[in-house]
Design a protein that fits this description.
heterodimer, A: 320 residues, alpha+beta, Multidrug efflux transporter AcrB transmembrane fold, Alpha-Beta Plaits, 9 helices, 4 strands, B: Alpha-Beta Plaits, Gyrase A, domain 2, 4-stranded antiparallel sheet, 12 helices, 11 strands
C-alpha cells in the first residue's frame, strides 16, 4: 500500500546521514540556555531557573500609560523619589509600543490592609513630579498565594509531561513515548533558557502566562512529533520487510517535511501578528510561544527522527 | 453526489445561523478588555473563629455580594474559590482602592455600655446589641443643625434589646462603635421604645459620603470574619479598549497572512481552505457567544493560535492528497485516501493538544483558563471543520473529474506523469477506490 518508490537514493534533507551533525548543532544551541539556567539557579536566592515575577513571589505591579517618553536617566530619579516615600525595592521598567509609552513599577505586595492606599500615593507622586501618569493596570498577588500558584503550575507541567508519554506509549510504542518526551524537554529547555538569558540581561520576569506558553508549546510540539511518528509507524507497517529502519525514517521525515514547515509557518504568521500588533501585556507570552513553535518544529524534524533511528539501530543489533 | 449536496446546504445553513448569532448577540468581554477589578479575598481566622466553616463562607459571600451590588456598577460576580476564598469581579470601576476598602471592611456595629476599670479609668464593654439586630439603616439629617447622620431602625428583637438597654443606662452614656472605632457616645436621657436610633458623627458630624457608606455597609450586613485581599487585577477602561482594537487588528492580519499563504502554496485547495477557515471562524465565535465564553486578552490569543492549528489539519490533508496525486491516483481517490490517511495524524495530535489544555484549565488561574477554554473549543471545532467542511467542498468542486490542471494543486505536470508511468498497471484498480 505505501509507495515503495518513496525510499530513494537521495533526499531533499538527509536526516540519517547527518544525524550526529544535527544532534551536535542542537546541543551547541542548548549550551548557552543551560549556562543561563545554571547561572540563575546558583545566584538567585530561591534557586529558580528563571527570574520569577509577582505571580510566584507575591508583589504588586502598577502599570502607567505616560504622555511622553521616559528617558533612562529619569528612571533613577523616579526610583529615588519612590524609595524616599517608603516604597520597598521598586523595579521600574519602560516599554514603548507604537505611540504608547508604558511604565511599570514592581514592588512588594500592596494589597494588605497596612498599605491601604499606597498605590494611590505612588500615582500622585508620579503625577506631581514626572508628567502625566495614568494608572492603566494593577496586578497584586499576596505572598502565600504566590507560593501556591508556583506549586500548581509545576504540578501542571509535570502532569502534562507524564500524560503525553502515557498517551504516545499507548497509541504508539514505548520508545516513541520517551523520545517524544525528550523532544518536549528540549523545547521547554530552549524556551526557559532564552527567558533566563532575557532575565539576566533585561530583567525579564516570568508569570503564570509564561507557564501557559510552555504548556502550549508542549501541546504544539507533541502535535508535530506525532505527525512524524505517525508517518514512520505507517511506513514501518508496510515497508519494514524491504527496507532498514533508517531508510524508512528518512523517507518518512522527508514526506512530512512540507507539512511540518507549512504548519509552523501558518502558526507563526498568526503569532507574529499577535506579537507586533496585539496587546502589549501579552508580548512576552506570545514571544515564548514563537520560540517554542520554532523549536518544536525543529525538534520534531531533527531530534525525534534521528534519536529514533539510533534507538532502532541498537534494538536491531540486539535482536540479531 | 446527492448526499454531498445535502451536506453542503446543511453546512451553509449552519454557518448562516451562526453568523446571525454573531451579529445579534453581544460578546461577553472579560475585565481586562472592558476595564474593572478582579479581587481575590481570603477569609481570615481569628481567636474567636479559629476555623472557617462552609457556613461562615456562605454568610461572608452573602455579605460581600450585598456590598458589591450596593456599588451599582452592573454585572458583578462573587464566586467561591476553594475553601476560604472569594473571587470578586467588578467591571467599570475606576477607583479600585476605594472599592477594596469598601468591600474589605468588617462593618461591625456595636453598642457598648461604660465600665469602670480597677484603676478607676473608664472603658466600654459589649452589650450584645449589634448590627445583627438592625432592620435597616438610612441617611438622615439633623433637623436642627442640618448635619448628616445615620438613622437606624431595629428589628423586633433589636428594638426590645435597645429599649432594655436605654432603660438600664438612663442618665449614663452609651457608646456606638463602628469597625472598632467609637462614633459617638451620647447621654441617655430616657428609655427609648420606638426601636429607632441615630448615630451622629460626634463633633463636626458626618460628611455625606461617610454617612452613605456606613448606611450601605450596615444594610449589606457585617462580615462574619475579616477578609483580606490576596490578589488583585485591575485594568483601566482605556487599556481595555486599546487591547480590543489591537487584538482585532492582530487577528485580521494573522488570518489574512495565513489565507494568502494557503492560496499561494496550495492554489485551488488553498481557496477551499480559506472558505473552510471563514466558516470555522464564524461558527467558533457563535460558540463563544452561546456557551458563553468570556473573552479575555489571553482567550483571544488562544483563538488566534487555534486558527494556526485549524489550518494544520487542512495542510495535512492537502499534503496527503498531493502525494496521492503524484502517485497517479484519480482525483476522487486521492481526496478520499488523503483524508483517511491524514486522519490518524490529525486525531492523535489534536488529542494531545486537548490533554494539555485540560491540564491548563484545571490548574490554571483565571487568565490561563480563558486561554485553555478557547483553545479546546478551537481544536475540537477544527477537526469538524477539516473533516466535514473541507472534504465536502473538495468533493463538490472537483467531483469525480480527471486531474486536468495539476497547477491548480501546486503540482508540476512532470511530477505526476513520471508517477503515472510507474503506477500504470494499478491505475484501473485505483479508479475503483481500491488501494494497493
Amino acid at each position: 500500500m505505501a509507495n515503495t518508490n518513496l525510499v530513494k537514493e537521495k533526499y531533499r534533507l538527509d536526516i540519517i546521514k547527518y544525524r550526529y551533525l544535527f544532534l551536535g548543532i542542537t546541543a551547541i544551541l542548548l549550551i548557552p540556555c543551560i549556562i543561563a539556567i545554571i547561572y540563575l539557579m546558583s545566584t538567585q536566592k530561591n534557586h529558580a531557573p528563571l527570574k520569577l515575577g509577582i505571580d510566584f513571589t507575591g508583589g504588586t505591579i502598577l502599570q502607567y500609560s505616560v504622555d511622553k517618553k521616559i528617558e533612562t536617566s529619569e528612571i533613577g530619579k523616579i526610583r529615588t523619589t519612590l524609595v524616599n516615600q517608603g516604597v520597598k525595592n521598586p523595579v521600574i521598567q519602560t516599554t514603548t509600543q507604537g505611540s504608547d509609552n508604558l511604565v511599570s513599577i514592581r514592588t512588594t505586595f500592596l494589597g494588605d490592609k497596612e498599605s491601604k492606599d499606597k498605590a494611590g500615593e505612588i500615582t500622585n507622586t508620579l503625577n506631581q513630579n514626572f508628567g502625566k501618569f495614568e494608572l492603566v493596570q494593577v496586578n497584586s498577588v499576596g505572598p502565600t498565594l504566590g507560593k501556591e500558584l508556583l506549586r500548581n503550575t509545576l504540578t501542571a507541567l509535570l502532569l502534562s509531561f507524564v500524560l503525553m508519554v502515557v498517551y504516545i506509549s499507548f497509541r504508539f510504542r514505548f520508545e516513541y513515548g520517551w523520545i517524544a518526551l525528550l523532544t518536549l524537554f528540549q523545547d521547554a529547555l530552549f524556551v526557559v533558557g532564552i527567558f533566563a538569558i532575557k532575565g539576566i540581561f533585561f530583567d525579564t520576569t516570568i508569570d503564570s502566562l509564561f507557564i501557559t506558553a510552555i504548556l502550549t508549546v508542549i501541546g504544539y510540539s507533541i502535535n508535530d512529533t506525532i505527525v512524524v511518528f505517525d508517518r514512520i509507524r505507517e511506513n514501518m507497517r508496510f515497508l519494514a520487510k524491504k527496507y532498514s529502519s533508517n531508510e524508512i525514517i528518512n523517507a518518512s521525515i522527508n514526506q512530512t517535511l512540507a507539512r511540518s514547515i507549512n504548519t509552523s509557518a501558518t502558526t507563526l504568521f498568526t503569532l507574529l501578528a499577535l506579537y507586533f500588533f496585539g496587546g502589549a501585556t501579552i508580548k512576552d507570552f506570545v514571544l515564548a510561544i514563537i520560540i517554542g513553535v520554532i523549536s518544536g518544529t525543529c525538534s520534531s524534524i531533527f531530534t525525534a527522527g534521528t534519536i529514533l533511528s539510533i534507538v532502532k539501530e541498537k534494538m536491531a543489533k540486539k535482536n540479531a | 453526489m446527492k448526499n454531498k449536496l445535502i451536506l453542503f446546504w446543511i453546512i451553509i445553513a449552519l454557518t448562516l445561523v451562526c453568523a446571525f448569532v454573531d451579529y445579534k448577540k453581544p460578546a461577553s468581554l472579560g475585565l481586562d478588555l472592558v476595564g474593572g477589578s478582579r479581587l481575590m479575598l481570603e477569609a481570615q481566622t481569628s481567636p474567636t473563629t479559629p476555623k472557617i466553616t462552609p457556613e461562615i463562607m456562605d454568610s461572608l459571600q452573602y455579605a460581600i455580594e450585598n456590598r458589591v451590588n450596593a456599588m451599582g456598577v452592573g454585572e458583578t460576580l462573587v464566586q467561591r474559590v476553594g475553601q476560604k476564598r472569594l473571587l470578586v469581579e467588578i467591571p467599570n470601576i475606576t477607583d479600585t482602592a476605594k472599592a477594596k476598602e469598601f468591600i474589605g471592611q468588617t462593618a461591625e456595629l456595636e453598642f457598648k455600655r461604660p465600665k469602670i476599670l480597677m484603676n478607676g479609668t473608664q472603658d466600654w464593654e459589649s452589650t450584645g446589641l449589634s448590627g445583627k439586630d438592625l432592620k435597616k439603616a438610612l441617611v438622615g439629617s439633623n433637623p436642627t443643625s442640618g448635619e448628616w447622620m445615620v438613622e437606624l431602625e431595629f428589628n423586633l428583637d433589636g428594638a426590645k434589646k435597645f429599649s432594655d438597654l436605654t432603660k438600664e443606662l438612663t442618665g449614663k452614656q452609651m457608646a456606638i462603635f463602628f469597625n472598632g472605632k467609637m462614633q459617638s457616645a451620647p447621654r441617655v436621657n430616657e428609655q427609648i421604645t420606638g426601636g429607632r436610633a441615630q448615630i451622629t458623627g460626634g463633633e463636626g458630624g458626618f460628611e455625606y459620603e461617610e454617612a452613605k457608606q456606613m448606611v450601605d455597609l450596615l444594610n449589606a450586613g457585617a462580615l462574619p470574619v475579616g477578609a483580606e485581599v490576596i490578589q488583585e487585577e485591575s485594568v483601566g477602561p482605556t487599556l481595555g479598549i486599546d487591547s480590543i482594537n489591537k487584538s482585532k487588528i492582530a487577528g485580521l492580519i494573522g488570518i489574512g497572512a495565513v489565507m494568502l499563504f494557503m492560496i499561494i502554496y496550495y492554489r485551488a485547495l488553498g481557496v477551499i481552505s480559506c472558505f473552510a477557515l471563514l466558516i470555522y471562524s464564524i461558527v467558533n465565535f457563535a460558540i463563544f457567544k452561546l456557551v458563553p465564553v468570556t473573552l479575555t486578552l489571553t482567550g483571544i490569543a488562544g483563538f488566534i493560535l487555534s486558527i494556526g492549528m485549524a489550518i494544520d489539519a487542512n495542510i495535512l490533508i492537502f499534503e496527503r492528497t498531493k502525494e496521492e496525486l503524484r502517485m497517479g491516483r484519480s482525483l476522487f481517490t486521492a481526496i478520499n485516501s488523503g483524508f483517511d490517511r491524514a486522519f490518524t495524524s490529525i486525531f492523535d495530535s489534536n488529542v494531545s493538544t486537548i490533554l494539555t489544555c485540560l491540564i491548563l484549565y484545571y490548574f490554571g488561574a483565571s487568565m490561563v483558563k480563558g486561554f485553555a477554554l478557547t483553545l479546546i473549543i478551537g481544536v475540537c471545532l477544527s477537526m469538524f471543520s477539516a473533516i466535514t467542511v473541507t472534504k465536502n467542498f473538495m468533493h463538490l468542486v472537483f467531483g469525480t473529474s480527471e486531474l486536468k490542471y495539476p497547477a491548480l494543486f501546486g503540482l508540476r505536470k512532470e511530477e505526476i506523469e513520471s508517477a503515472y508511468v510507474a503506477q500504470q498497471t494499478k491505475r484501473e484498480k485505483a479508479k475503483f477506490g481500491v488501494l494497493d
